């Protein structure tokens, strides 16, 4: 293959690729490899992940330098990817635990946002990932609660790495990255009536959170997605003798404009372009981050996932009928059936046209790799035996599949009796043939909050008289070369 376009145009095209895509594109042909061996392509992507040329641990000779590659950022990128692939392949990681005073953790490389229970600290800690290690970046003050507020809610939300929100009861504090540092940007109050929100324009964080009339019912509020302009925010109203009412608001906090107000059953998640949720009236729905509806289907779904080409999910029809489906985005015209009977979980390759499904068959759970182009099954393996056959419907919410580095599939069995002795473990397989590499033990899992090429963040819970919630961090940038130690607690 020869380059028929100017080199500058090829570099512009390649600039849209991530690290994994750049690495794969180098293998297409010699011409592409020569074009991609350019520090201008690799440097910004590595810096965005907190990796620099002084990263000695990632470039310590463990992985040989590729012959013919002299550019330092290119070589560091290849070493970085190779180090991650080796650690995932060998299930090698550093483990640490956040202290008990932690209220919440949110991650978007290269930043980690860490909040504390207000009784322990009244600030948010921003950490920066620097060559795989957590470094203190900033300590930003939060408003003080009034005497009426008795709960310890202080939840961070981070969808992009340049903005995050902290929700405290009915108050949302937004911080933005400016000139390389995070600072206060906006304070928002959920009023529950009228315009729904009150935006406070100040240059510094308000000293106190907005007051709430004690005679009014205090809603339960949480933020799910925040961008440079809008915030996705849910309020749960609890009225005596009435069922919970969950309302999702999409609020442009720069223009003080309500973009969406819809009753929901739950917020599934968000990508960099879309939000996925179950609405009360329209079922599974997909919206742009600005609150415009893209698509909806009046059905129950589970195992929703997405990649650069679209989203996949399992549609739950009349019991025991289930169908795995794929919807191309942003086209969003009609869904395509994925021919896998009795599917209980699905995930998509992030950059390729492949789906990975877990399905039940007699006394086994099998995993398949399916081509989304022609529907062909590329491989089929036995994932684990099932001692007692169980209806598909009872296991639809018990498994979670994901893909890391484009090379490995992770399978998490959550409190499910079908995986006797195996639940609350992360099972790792290769994407190429489905070979099982091993398992990672997790304490009783409350939520798998973050999973990326570099990190896994798990919220765990244990009952020792009272429920105790902890956050555990698994760092795959470095192999385990020191004893397990908790992350250093930040003193108020």
From TrEMBL:
<dbReference type="Pfam" id="PF12937">
    <property type="entry name" value="F-box-like"/>
</dbReference>
<dbReference type="InterPro" id="IPR001810">
    <property type="entry name" value="F-box_dom"/>
</dbReference>
<feature type="domain" description="F-box">
    <location>
        <begin position="1"/>
        <end position="45"/>
    </location>
</feature>
<dbReference type="InterPro" id="IPR036047">
    <property type="entry name" value="F-box-like_dom_sf"/>
</dbReference>
<protein>
    <recommendedName>
        <fullName>F-box domain-containing protein</fullName>
    </recommendedName>
</protein>
């Amino acid at each position: 293959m020869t380059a028929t376009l100017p080199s500058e145009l090829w570099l512009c095209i390649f600039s849209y690729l991530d690290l994994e895509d750049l690495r794969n594109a180098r293998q297409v042909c010699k011409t592409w490899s020569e074009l991609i061996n350019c520090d201008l392509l690799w440097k910004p992507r590595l810096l965005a992940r907190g990796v620099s040329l002084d990263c000695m641990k990632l470039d310590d000779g463990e992985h040989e330098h590729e012959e013919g590659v002299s550019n330092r950022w290119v070589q560091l990128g290849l070493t970085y990817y190779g180090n991650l692939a080796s650690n995932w392949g060998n299930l090698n990681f550093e483990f640490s635990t956040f202290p008990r005073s932690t209220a919440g953790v949110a991650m978007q490389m290269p930043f980690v946002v860490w909040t504390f229970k207000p009784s322990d600290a009244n600030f948010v800690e921003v950490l920066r990932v620097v060559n795989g290690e957590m470094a203190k970046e900033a300590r930003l003050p939060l408003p003080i609660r009034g005497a009426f507020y008795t709960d310890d809610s202080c939840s961070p939300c981070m969808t992009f790495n340049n903005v995050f929100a902290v929700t405290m009861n009915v108050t949302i504090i937004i911080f933005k990255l400016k000139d390389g540092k995070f600072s206060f940007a906006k304070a928002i109050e959920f009023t529950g009536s009228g315009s729904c929100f009150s935006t406070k324009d100040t240059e510094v964080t308000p000293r106190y959170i907005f007051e709430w009339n004690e005679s009014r019912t205090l809603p339960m509020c949480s933020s799910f997605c925040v961008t440079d302009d809008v915030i996705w925010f849910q309020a749960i109203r609890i009225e005596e003798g009435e069922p919970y009412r969950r309302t999702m608001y999409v609020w442009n906090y720069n223009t003080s404009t309500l973009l969406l107000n819809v009753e929901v059953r739950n917020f599934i998640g968000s990508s960099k372009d879309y939000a996925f949720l179950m609405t009360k009236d329209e079922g599974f729905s997909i919206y742009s981050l600005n609150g415009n509806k893209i698509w909806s289907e009046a059905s129950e779904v589970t195992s929703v996932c997405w990649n650069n080409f679209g989203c996949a999910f399992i549609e739950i029809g009349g019991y025991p009928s289930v169908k795995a489906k794929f919807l191309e985005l942003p086209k969003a015209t009609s869904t395509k059936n994925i021919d896998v009977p009795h599917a209980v979980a699905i995930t998509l390759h992030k950059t390729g046209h492949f789906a990975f499904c877990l399905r039940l068959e007699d006394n086994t759970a099998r995993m398949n790799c399916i081509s989304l182009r022609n529907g062909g099954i590329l491989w089929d393996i036995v994932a684990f035996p099932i001692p007692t056959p169980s209806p598909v419907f009872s296991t639809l919410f018990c498994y979670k599949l994901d893909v890391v580095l484009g090379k490995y599939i992770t399978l998490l069995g959550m409190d499910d009796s079908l995986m006797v002795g195996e639940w609350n473990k992360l099972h790792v397989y290769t994407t190429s043939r489905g070979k099982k590499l091993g398992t990672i033990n997790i304490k009783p899992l409350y939520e798998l909050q973050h999973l990326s090429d570099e990190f896994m963040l798990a919220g765990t819970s244990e009952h020792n008289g009272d429920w105790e919630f902890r956050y555990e961090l698994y760092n795959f940038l470095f192999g385990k070369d020191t004893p397990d130690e908790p992350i250093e607690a930040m003193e108020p």
